[in-house]
Amino acid sequence: MIIGVDHVLVAVDNLDDAMETYRQLGFQVQPGGEHPGRGTYNALVPLSDGFYFELMGVKDKSLAEKFAPSRRVVDALDRENHLATFALDSNKLDSDVASIRGRELMIGDPNEGERTRPDGQRVAWRSALPEDSALPFLIQDVTPRETRSAPPTEGLGRWLRVADVVFGVNDLEARRAAFARLFGVNPSADRFEFSRGAIQLEAIDTDEGLLRITLLAEDIGRVAEQLRAQDKTFRERVIEGVGVVLEPVDTEGVPLQIIGRAS
């Protein structure tokens, strides 16, 4: 069963700099580790609901280009928008793959993945990638979830959870049908909701891909205060006198907005 949005991959030019950027924004950042044989390494920015941003750097471009989704990370480094791709959390990967194939959507066999954290702890998972590389991939933990991404104990992430992953598409009808086959739901919707986050399709006339990430704040005023305390530039909008939207400016190429109710 697909539980929800697991994480989003963010391509970064310099991992150390990206980690510092998110720390300066007020987030807790967890060192990740290297992906053996994949030419990439990472760090994680976790939120309260289990979602996280995976900051991924490239150590060996020629090696990274041989594998998906690291190949999409390489491609994203050439764009202003550094959102590369995203993953869906599955608790029964083999069953989900079989169901997806039964809905006539091509998806690869589950494959093993792992990395070693800086503290020596092994992190292992299984993933399955749709043949259509624009679609998100599925992931299931082998080691405990908190080994891969522990809940934040400090910083902004404690007060935030993922709301929307907005995906830009050129052919709304065709993409709607593809996502519907992936999830096994009615193909008439442009929004797919889960227990963790939602995917929103949006028609565009440029290259398809992730457009932005929307986070939901328990206390939007506290988030704004934290950004001000960190002397971080952000845009603020009030919608109909009730909703507040914060858009941090320096996010390592991540179009990011934080929403909440005005107090």
Strand content: 35-45%
Cα-to-Cα separation, first versus last residue:
37 Å
| Number of distinct beta strands | 15
Uncertain segments of ≥5 residues (pLDDT<50)?
none
* Tally of separate helices: 7
Judged by helices, strands and strand pairing, the structural class is alpha+beta
Mean pLDDT: 94
- Indicate the radius of gyration in whole angstroms: 18 Å
The side-by-side strand order for the widest beta sheet comes to: 2-3-4-1-5-8-7-6
Helix residue percentage:
10-25%
Order of helices and strands: EHEEEHHEHEEEHEHEEEHEEE
The outline comes out as globular
The biggest sheet amounts to: 8 strands, mixed
How would you portray this structure in words?
With 263 residues, the chain is an alpha+beta fold. 22% of the residues lie in helices and 39% in strands. The chain has helices at 15-25, 61-64, 70-76, 93-102, 145-148, 172-183, 220-229, and strands at residues 2-11, 30-35, 40-46, 52-58, 83-90, 111-116, 122-128, 137-141, 160-169, 191-193, 198-203, 209-217, 234-239, 243-248, 256-261. It has an 8-stranded mixed beta sheet with strand order 2-3-4-1-5-8-7-6. A 7-stranded mixed beta sheet has the order 10-11-9-12-15-14-13, covered by helices on one side. A hairpin with a 7-residue loop joins strand 14 (243-248) and strand 15. The mean pLDDT is 94.
Summarize the structure.
This protein has seven helices and 15 strands. It is an alpha+beta fold. It has an eight-stranded mixed β-sheet. It has a seven-stranded mixed β-sheet with strand order 10-11-9-12-15-14-13, covered by helices on one side.
